[in-house]
Amino acid sequence: MRKGLFKLIVVVLILLIGMSIGIFLGRNNSTLIIKPMKMLFKKYLLTKNSHWGEDFNIVEIKSSKDNTVQKSYFYKSKSSNPKPLIVSLHAWSGDFSENDRLAEISVLKDLNYIHPNFRGPNNEVDACCSELAVTDIDDAITYAINNSNVDNGEIYVIGLSGGGYATFCAFMKSKHRVKKFSAWASISDLVAWYNESKIRNNQFATDILDCTGSENGIDIKRAKERSPLYWQTPIEKLKNSKLTIYAGVYDGVKGSVPITHSFNFYNKILSEISVEDTSLYVSNYEKLKLLEKREKIAEFGKIGDREIYLKKEFINLSIIIFEGDHEILPEFAINDLLKD
Fold it and tell me: Which burial class, exposed, middle or buried, applies to 296 when counting CB atoms under 10 A from its CB (0-12, 13-18, 19+)?
């Protein structure tokens, strides 16, 4: 009888303590507790859902900027001949351990592959395409070149969403001679994305505040410093490197990144390389037709099994809006990189 009563008292006390903590957090919105718990939960999900095979090794790469060790998943081609290198950049809330379909395809094709951490999820000031993060991407490329049989003429950088954002940043600032940059569903302007995310009431708005060190609302200056849309275009780089921008026409409706980020970055580069032919830009008419009606501008064919809604290109720069949402087409993406 006494044992049963004791157990009942313990259960009641636990419930009361739990309710008290819940009420306290609800009233005080304590970021001291909530934020670390959210980060821990995200980390748990990434670890729980990671399925890296035995072909991959976790390597530790010391930053050439601050000596911090950044991990990467790395696959070294088994070929005795030089092989291409795939540099796959993780998503906004991810890190080096998140699942990546491009990794599987790279192994099947026996391509050198690296999946760097570059400061992990974009919710702290050292991440979010900081100078440290961009340097980490370059350090990962250097590591792969020094530790595998890389064809230096076939280095490819690719990413989806936050990885597309990082691909834009690598295009703008990487020191390496990269043959192609492939950016999918990419963010180009943190100021705009903060406002868009705030309206949607999602976590990304808070992440942007955290990674820009903003207090009492977004710090516009710092957000622009982390936004490739406001960086100077490396015009000379386009002579040797190709940048292709992909976006699903329904992103921003079914996904979290409006396709205007892709339009604006493409047009910005054309403007900075002084392209005068207005037909090469994404026009306001084309933007409105795609945003309001989600209709094809003309017949452009397909990528994979998806209809192309808009295609523009000038020398080594191109944009493709396809039938889809916030996604990458992995098989097509790799094959397109390897295509001459």
Answer: middle
Any bridge partners for residue 160, and if so which? 184
Determine the Cα–Cα distance for residues 5 and 253; give it in Å rounded to an integer. 56
Handedness of CA 132, 138, 139, 140 (dihedral sign): positive
Mean pLDDT value of segment 276-294: 97
5 plus 98 within the same structural domain: no
Domains contained in the chain, number: 2
| Same-domain check for residues 296 and 315 | yes
Q: Is pLDDT of 138 > 80?
A: yes
What is the sign of the dihedral through the CA atoms of 168, 68, 100 and 150?
positive
Range of the domain at 129: 54-338
The CATH number of the domain holding residue 224 is: 3.40.50.1820
Task: Calculate ∠ Cα 171-137-86, nearest 5°.
Answer: 80
Question: Which among 242, 129, 229 has a CA at the least distance from the CA of 179?
Answer: 242
Calculate mean pLDDT across residues 306-314: 98
- Global pTM reads 0.87
